[in-house]
């Protein structure tokens, strides 16, 4: 969902969506630049927060807020003007903020020694999600003449993704317990 909602949907289709509402390409590109600036702040803060709070709850908040912003994007596009600046700042804070808590959860679930390989697979899935969203949003735009369905569907999927993190605790605890038991058996041998 991260790749689908960032690179795939917004990174690929924000400029054409703005164009549909009479917003110039330069203005739309400036919105992406604002997102990039706020991304630096959001991701840095997320790293600091990941050291202090539950990654599951942070990911719940990040994906839920991302979904909420996508629900409001069609309305903000219609209004244009400064409203889009607010969207760009808010969305930018969340753009890559999911990385630190995701790495933490990966480490907790699979052990530090496996984090690099597993996170590599997560990165590959991120790109697959981005490509699927880029394709389907383009097809939807061609079919319906509007990006609204794509924003709403991906926004809803972001909400579902956020809620999934609230329920992954048992699986993470089971994985950590199994890993600890395996280490204990290995130490006894």
CATH architecture group name: Up-down Bundle
Shape assignment: elongated
Low-confidence stretches: none
What is the end-to-end distance? 42 Å
CATH class: Mainly Alpha
What number of domains? 1
Determine the fraction of residues in helical runs and give it as a percent range.
over 70%
Structure classification: mainly alpha
> At the third CATH level, what is the topology name?
Growth Hormone, Chain: A
Task: Please trace the helix and strand order, writing H or E for each element.
Answer: HHHHHHHH
Plain-language structure description:
The protein is mainly α and 189 residues long. It has one domain: MFS general substrate transporter like domains (Growth Hormone, Chain: A), CATH 1.20.1250.20. It has helices at residues 2-20, 25-50, 55-79, 82-94, 99-110, 115-144, 148-166, 169-188. The radius of gyration is 19 Å and the shape is elongated.
Short description:
With about 190 residues, the chain is mostly helical.
Looking at this protein, list some descriptive labels:
Growth Hormone, Chain: A; single chain; mainly alpha; elongated; 189 residues
Topology:
Elements: H1 2-20, H2 25-50, H3 55-79, H4 82-94, H5 99-110, H6 115-144, H7 148-166, H8 169-188
Helix pairs in contact: 1-2, 1-6, 1-7, 2-4, 2-5, 3-4, 3-5, 3-7, 5-8, 6-7
